[in-house]
């Protein structure tokens, strides 16, 4: 963790690509020092069918969902959220200057009792942590 998922209206495709938002958010999450490198995953996808505000096709929206494991202090979670939101704001600054754009970032903790996973990212920063399996 974290898992960073970016959903954005299709009219922002070029902006997301040009700004290298996926790479920048991924690197920013690592740079916080809160997460092991092997645990960071960042995904983005355009949403082809959308309505934003009054339905004008020029309106755009970008939503970033960040899921992390439980147990971190509120101040740490806020620091991560602010660091990632700053990256989003910088990436979208040219579009915000033109208007008709919204963005939001949410950080949530998953429930460890309702989460199972298996990971084998051998060769990562810490092999003992990079190969794990847990069932709830």
Automatic annotation (TrEMBL):
SUPFAM superfamilies named in the record = Tautomerase/MIF (SSF55331)
Q: Per UniProt, which keywords does this protein have?
A: Isomerase
Task: Tell me the CDD domains matching this sequence.
Answer: CHMI
Q: What's the domain of life for this entry?
A: Bacteria
The terms under GO molecular function for this entry are: 5-carboxymethyl-2-hydroxymuconate delta-isomerase activity
**Coiled-coil ranges per UniProt:** none
Quote the protein name from its UniProt record.
5-carboxymethyl-2-hydroxymuconate Delta-isomerase
Tell me the organism.
Answer: Malikia spinosa
């Amino acid at each position: 963790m974290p898992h960073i998922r970016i959903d954005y209206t299709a009219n922002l495709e070029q902006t997301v690509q040009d700004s290298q938002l996926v790479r920048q958010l991924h690197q920013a999450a690592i740079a916080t020092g809160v997460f092991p490198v092997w645990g960071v995953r960042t995904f983005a996808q355009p949403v082809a069918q959308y309505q934003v505000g009054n339905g004008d096709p020029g309106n755009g929206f970008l939503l970033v969902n960040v899921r992390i494991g439980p147990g971190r202090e509120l101040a740490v979670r806020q620091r991560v959220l602010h660091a990632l939101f700053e990256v989003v704001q910088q990436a979208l600054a040219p579009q915000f200057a033109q208007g008709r754009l919204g963005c939001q970032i949410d950080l949530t903790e998953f429930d460890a009792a309702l989460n199972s996973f298996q990971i084998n990212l051998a060769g990562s920063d810490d092999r003992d942590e990079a190969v794990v399996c847990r069932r709830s």
